[in-house]
Queue: 3 jobs
Job 1
Amino acid sequence: MAKLQDQNLVGQGYTSGRGVGDVIGILGKNLRYWRERRGLDVAELAEKSGLSRTYIYEIENGVKTNPALDKLGSLALALNIAIADLFDQRHQTHRESVVVVEDILSATEIIFKGKKFSEKQMKFFKGFVDHMMHDYTFWDLANIELWGE
């Protein structure tokens, strides 16, 4: 199997030691990750993207090794991510380490351990996060300096 360096992809976020098969594996893992993070099953993603459940299953399981760019675009649009996110290797081990607070406050769904928050849970959690971010007493008590202030 050809190495990525043979395809001039080195220096674009891919390492020369990874083969094309590794990239396909990353694509499948990332697709499953983003689908699950959005709280979708394969059938729901298929409906949102206009692709078949089989097609999505094959990508996630490394069977489909050459998905068309327009199909990847449909998946990315349905998941509200960039196509590049489907190939991003940087977050394979620590992908939950960054959370944008604005994303929490504007989220229409929050999923924790595979379960969606109820409306009541969402309201409470968003209120808590919003209050915590604007309550300087909280940060003073925690002895944390905010944004260089």
Job 2
Amino acid sequence: MNAGEFFSKLNNLWNELTNLIKVPICTCSGCKCEVSSKIMGMYEEDRAHQFILGLNDDLYSTLRSQILALDPLPLLDQIFNMTKQEDYDGSRHPKRNNRGFPSMRATRNGGKSKVARYVVDMDTKRPFATK
């Protein structure tokens, strides 16, 4: 499941929970403690942690570490945008498998230029030709 699908499912659960649990509102006259906004801030930070810690370890472990190291913790929307950027970057630059890295090499064949494609086997560190 990618970050967008996970965020959507988590957001639906949060909305249901918000309908069940109401945040208390300060009713004293002339209140300057802003307890409601502090409680909402705690909920938002908790949701950000739930989202970060629920991400797939294989895909987002580095990003998770970077986000958790930030002080103060970014807003949930900013964290979601960071994960979407990570998805975008990952789709444009897929991770290479263990078989190797493609390379190109030009050779001469009877005066004609010919391009041969080689791949380096990461286990043996030896190149081999591909078709």
Job 3
Amino acid sequence: MSYNKNNLTNLTSQLIKVPGLASDSSTILNSRTSASGGEFYELEPGEVLDFIETDSDLQKLPEELKTDQSYIGAIQVRPLYSGKDVRKEDCPFARPLSVNEKFYPAIGEIVILVEYVKGLYYKDIINIDGNINNNAQPDISINKLTSDTSQTKNYKKNTPPQKSNNKTKLGKVLIDKNDKVKPLQPHEGNYILEGKFGNSIRFGSNKNNEPHIKIRNGQATENDSKPALTYIEEDINKDKNSIWLIENDTVAFIPDTKEAPKNTVEYKGNQILINSDKIVFNSKVNELAFFGKKNIGFSTDGEFCINATKDIIINSKANIKTISTSETNIKAGTRTVIDSPKVLIGSNGSSEPLVLGNKWKAYMTELLNAIIAHIHKSGSGPTDMPLNDPKFSALIAKLDTILSKKCTTE
């Protein structure tokens, strides 16, 4: 909204039919001298009265706009100068100025208003008291009641509103001002985007002007109890969810497992760090690939599970080691094959060879049959076969039961 500082008279015609600004200047908060001699402002602050969030909220709009989906995200607003003391039902609606970058305010916050070709728009929330969660100033646009109806030139001339005696709700979610959420510490040259709930993106750098991007969703719990307007830094270890993109710097990242992955070096150089209570990677159609020029490490205090519908293939040009301080179990549905030029069981120093079962059976069968058939010379001639030869025959019958039904070797 534009206004004249001397008489605070609304200088525009119908809101939806305004052809453009009085000046072609695009400078924010630009002012010039009007024809009436007063200081003329192209932009005007306004108090947010309501928020159009859903299709049902469109019913709050004037009749001709009730089906206009472009008003989702619009606000009802009372201009602080040209609309002071106008009743809420007579106040206009403004849409976000940018289609790509939008900051939705809380009820009671002060935004900047501007009129362009097709109506009234809002941009930026004015930093009244520096609170990240909200800067609401409820009823600031009606704190000076007046009976001068000339002030409401482009609005219905009705009885001025009365200042609310009740605590103003800031919206459906923002019920009250939340001092737990703290602003981020600014640094020279940084560009910071901060939400109202402890979420932020910082485009910054280190002390050597090497860039970094820090994305945070949920500040560290220890910051909740700090005084309002305490400026805080992001903390990769304590913030609830973090993604840091770092160039040529060292991050004091602390893994939460009891043991860090083996061969893990310092967290330094060009790196991306992700930290959260839970991280899920899901590829809906194609591959999920991990590549590491040097080491790849996994560490967990719980189970490490790999499930595959098809083969699991592990290839290494060096050693493959499986180490357990307890049991190591290998279970297969059909067979387990170990194929190597040399297989050691027991330790790296094992030297005793394994016995081949079938050859051992054949040897023992031959041996036992020889025992059964053996005879001795005596003075009266050859002796008969041993009296206990049935026992030897029984031992031969048991040889098959000694052979493993699961394990075979070459």
